[in-house]
């Protein structure tokens, strides 16, 4: 079973703009490896007669008419935000972008 | 402050002598649906921040998306108009990334199963040559929210202390249209890029699926470009210049990148695969971020949406309802209006074709409709950096001005003032004529008096004309026009002067 390498964890951390220490990389690599291993057991059960699926129901073309429905008010929309400013969601500094 | 990179550029011709450019163009079109792609929130522009959001487009737990039927229909229409195959079955996919412009932390898009693929669009260059651009795919996705970067000097992310998000735009339907690598255009690559985007814009408008206004971001282009030495088959490393938002900029960005790549390669350097920002002011590009690989987005099929399987009969029905293709329509109009290929191309680039057509339909002669839209109005649009279509004047109003000119009630100079008045919000043409008192002086008595006065005030010139120097009449015509504040019919004034002085025109 292919495991999650330390390098892969470092790469993911870079994408997420997370700074991880060496010991954390080892720690998370181990944990992620366990999780992936547990989920991978599904592929042992799925044989060739079980096609991969993304949805449990055999449905297609479920669509809605292009009709406007009421939105939330800005107050409602922002009510769960940890921080807001100028009626907008306030987020911390964005890193690694220009 | 713009981050200035000190790059030397290779002269364009030199770059092309050594290298062969390969381009890829990715165009995002915001659809003109009333609601978002996966929820019923309004897509109306200009609303208060975060007033058009709901649990679905805010990515709240448990909220389920449902596809907008018109979004799918528009995608199929675009695919068909681009001569694509339409997928019999396709799915949406999650594109995962760490950036706050999507509250879900992913963008719902399509990955390896686009709704339309393998097409082409024939585009016409300024000299009439037709270049075929192959289309890789057109897929459905959603727009992102708008960010404000606060605390820095310039509103850029760099230097900002925090950012503010408005999610009104998050979830508005987008169609992304991706070309196959465009090869063989050589030195004309930038021109092909511009012509392709112009043609695509016309096509989208003809399909009536979006207004495709580039200045409003309803249509945005990414220009991917790489160079390879002549004779080599393998592509070089590409750069991706993002969000190039006017036809002219598309051409400039491609040209700049050709010169920049050539400079790097000539100097023995390597091109880094990265995104770049285009700068309108000087036509340059600067480094953005190192491009993430497709696998970094960890695409997987969207489990909250069921697959789309456009029924064949429906696809054929949509195919049957496609409008006349813009290029063929322009050919027809060109013959009807009796204009050159070059003039037609200028009208296309100015976004004037539909406006002129509508003006003619409202009763104006073709030459006048063309003259006003491409003259006075195009100048005004340029000065205010707006699209012609966004000017506060309608084809019917322009047609009315043309009618007044044809009837001899306005001359060209007065007509320009009327247009100016309409643009300034003074009312429709008749109101402006009335308010500003703009009428050709056709009262022969008043005109006669003005002519007599001009002759009396300029005896030396009058004598010359009497002696047969007809050319001198211009000075007297000028004097009369000045006296009547430009409101006289210059041809009639000339006639009167010659008559009075017994000279033959």
TrEMBL record, chain A:
EC number: 6.3.5.-
Keywords on record: ATP-binding, Ligase, Nucleotide-binding, Protein biosynthesis, Transferase
Region spans: Disordered: 70-98
Gene Ontology biological process terms from the UniProt entry: glutaminyl-tRNAGln biosynthesis via transamidation; regulation of translational fidelity; translation
Reactions accelerated catalytically: L-glutamyl-tRNA(Gln) + L-glutamine + ATP + H2O = L-glutaminyl-tRNA(Gln) + L-glutamate + ADP + phosphate + H(+); L-aspartyl-tRNA(Asn) + L-glutamine + ATP + H2O = L-asparaginyl-tRNA(Asn) + L-glutamate + ADP + phosphate + 2 H(+)
Molecular functions (GO terms): asparaginyl-tRNA synthase (glutamine-hydrolyzing) activity; ATP binding; glutaminyl-tRNA synthase (glutamine-hydrolyzing) activity; transferase activity
PANTHER family, sorted: GLUTAMYL-TRNA(GLN) AMIDOTRANSFERASE SUBUNIT C, MITOCHONDRIAL
NCBIfam families cross-referenced by the UniProt entry: gatC
Entry function: Allows the formation of correctly charged Asn-tRNA(Asn) or Gln-tRNA(Gln) through the transamidation of misacylated Asp-tRNA(Asn) or Glu-tRNA(Gln) in organisms which lack either or both of asparaginyl-tRNA or glutaminyl-tRNA synthetases. The reaction takes place in the presence of glutamine and ATP through an activated phospho-Asp-tRNA(Asn) or phospho-Glu-tRNA(Gln).
Annotated HAMAP family: GatC
Assembly and oligomerization: Heterotrimer of A, B and C subunits.
Family classification: Belongs to the GatC family.
Protein name: Aspartyl/glutamyl-tRNA(Asn/Gln) amidotransferase subunit C
Lineage: Bacteria, Bacillati, Actinomycetota, Actinomycetes, Kitasatosporales
Name of the encoding gene: gatC
From TrEMBL, chain B:
InterPro entries per record: Asn/Gln-tRNA_amidoTrfase_suB/E, Asn/Gln-tRNA_Trfase_suB/E_cat, Asn/Gln_amidotransferase, Asn/Gln_tRNA_amidoTrase-B-like, GatB, GatB_Yqey_C_2, Gln-tRNA_amidoTrfase_suB_CS, Gln_synth/guanido_kin_cat_dom
Role according to the record: Allows the formation of correctly charged Asn-tRNA(Asn) or Gln-tRNA(Gln) through the transamidation of misacylated Asp-tRNA(Asn) or Glu-tRNA(Gln) in organisms which lack either or both of asparaginyl-tRNA or glutaminyl-tRNA synthetases. The reaction takes place in the presence of glutamine and ATP through an activated phospho-Asp-tRNA(Asn) or phospho-Glu-tRNA(Gln).
Residue ranges constituting the Asn/Gln amidotransferase domain according to the UniProt record: 354-501
Subunit relationships: Heterotrimer of A, B and C subunits.
Keyword entries, A-Z: ATP-binding, Ligase, Nucleotide-binding, Protein biosynthesis
Name of the gene encoding the protein in the UniProt record: gatB
Top-level class of the enzyme under EC nomenclature: ligase
Protein name per Swiss-Prot or TrEMBL: Aspartyl/glutamyl-tRNA(Asn/Gln) amidotransferase subunit B
Record HAMAP family: GatB
Domain of life: Bacteria
Reaction(s) catalysed (UniProt annotation): L-glutamyl-tRNA(Gln) + L-glutamine + ATP + H2O = L-glutaminyl-tRNA(Gln) + L-glutamate + ADP + phosphate + H(+); L-aspartyl-tRNA(Asn) + L-glutamine + ATP + H2O = L-asparaginyl-tRNA(Asn) + L-glutamate + ADP + phosphate + 2 H(+)
Family: Belongs to the GatB/GatE family. GatB subfamily.
Enzyme Commission number, as recorded: 6.3.5.-
Keyword Ligase attached: yes
Pfam families reported in the protein's UniProt record: GatB_N (PF02934), GatB_Yqey (PF02637)
